[in-house]
Amino acid sequence: MISSELDVYNVCCNGVGVAGNLFAFVLFLSPMPTFRRIIRNGSTEQFSGLPYIYALLNCLICLWYGLPVVTQGMLLVATVNSIGALFQLVYISLFITYAERRKKVNMLGLLLAVFSLFAVIVFVSLRFMGPSLRQLFVGYLSVASLISMFASPLFIINLVIQTKSVEFMPFYLSLATFLMSFSFFAFGFLKHDGFIYVPNGIGSLLGVVQLVLYAYYSRKSKDSEEPLLASE
């Protein structure tokens, strides 16, 4: 009986973990229409590079947290974030290529800061901490980085509210963020790992906010495109 319950538990954990990986992969692909537009127009326009910087930092820290040297049983966290880090590097490289000079300098500085910070985190956690303290240290950092990543679309949300347009908030990016966050919330909850389920729970709520805003402003945009009736 206990064995069958454990089997069901493991299947549920692996199931939501794999689902989280799949939704995360969709999330990593979702900026592609944005970058096709950037490449086609030869400009980053009003798009912000900050979400990709935050996402890269998050992926690196969560990758470190998911490795056995820090946390046991979190291989699905490590694999998805290693892929995510590669995607973010590609997007950041494209953004730097097509950005104006001021944005190029800012993005290069932020990219260097991300790699420097990650190197310090790895060195400190390996050199000065034992296994238990290392997991706590990296875990709290992963929570902070995840919340920062999920909060970064707030810049875009502000732009949406100001312009009353969803032009700069791609729908599939918002949807994939919600689905990925909810999947890893369930994964962390089943694993009894607060470092996973707390920030992803927050991410799920923020994802809902983005979807509601998208539905509201996209409807208003469509309404505004309808021809006005001539007054008699």
Summarize the helices and strands and which ones pair or pack.
Layout: H1 2-29, H2 32-41, H3 50-66, H4 75-98, H5 101-127, H6 131-151, H7 153-163, H8 171-190, H9 194-225
Considering the chains and any ligands shown, give keywords for the structure:
232 residues, mainly alpha, 9 helices, 82% helix, 0% strand, disordered C terminus
Mind explaining what this structure looks like?
- The structure is a single chain.
- The protein has 232 residues and is mainly α.
- It is built from 9 helices and no strands.
- The protein has helices at residues 2-29, 32-41, 50-66, 75-98, 101-127, 131-151, 153-163, 171-190, 194-225.
- Helix 3 packs parallel to helix 5 (101-127) and helix 3 packs antiparallel against helix 6 (131-151).
- It is globular.
Concise summary:
The chain has 232 residues and is an all-alpha fold. The chain is built from nine helices and no strands.
